[in-house]
Design goal:
Layout lengths: L1 H13 L2 H4 L4 H17 L8 H8 L4 H17 L7 H4 L1 E2 L12 E2 L6 H4 L2 H11 L10 H9 L2 H14 L12
Antiparallel strand pairs: 1-2
Helix pairs in contact: 5-8, 5-9
Length: 176
């Protein structure tokens, strides 16, 4: 059943998520409730908390998956894998003398709420905090695998980046 959920329902919940990704706590919980309800209805799972169900089934939160898709899309834009000019979407730092990788982005100051929650504004803080190595940037597959292994780091980074960039609000579910 879990395989069917991942194959048939995840794509529906994640389709073009960089465009519609929820940023209010209410909307994030509403989207996450789809996976929460599904996992609770599986045999032997109804008594477990949501985080325990996720761990035993090998599922990540849908929010974490959206962040991962956002980072992969950022990679594709930054390194010319899409027919989009990087400079139209992001402001790239010309020199990086700080810690981290050399592909850092600038966060633009937004005065309109609609723009604050736009993909290009929200992904900057998380992208800049990733431990990116040159070997991870050789292909989309290597970047995808490298960032997929960082799922726990994402959760911490997203929590920290919300203070800087009021975008997605990370939700850490503690109850079932």
């Amino acid at each position: 059943m879990t395989r069917a959920f991942v194959v048939y329902v995840h794509p529906l919940l994640e389709y073009t998520s960089c465009v519609w990704s929820p940023y209010t706590l209410q909307d994030i919980k509403r989207v996450e409730s789809v996976q929460r309800r599904f996992t609770k209805r599986l045999p032997g799972m109804s008594h477990l908390k949501y985080t325990a169900r996720q761990k035993s089934l090998g599922l990540e939160t849908l929010e974490l998956r959206r962040w991962h898709h956002d980072l992969v899309l950022t990679y594709k834009i930054m390194f010319g894998k899409l027919d989009t000019d990087c400079m139209d979407m992001f402001t790239v730092r010309s020199q990086s003398i700080t810690r981290g990788h050399q592909w850092k982005l600038f966060a633009n100051h937004c005065h309109v709420d609609a723009k604050k929650h736009f993909f290009c504004e929200c992904v900057v803080a998380v992208w800049n905090s990733l431990p990116i190595l040159a070997d991870n940037l050789k292909s989309i597959a290597s970047f995808y695998c490298a960032t997929a292994m960082l799922s726990t780091v994402y959760a911490v980074v997203v929590c920290l980046c919300v203070c800087v960039c009021v975008c997605h609000t990370p939700v850490l579910y503690q109850n079932g």
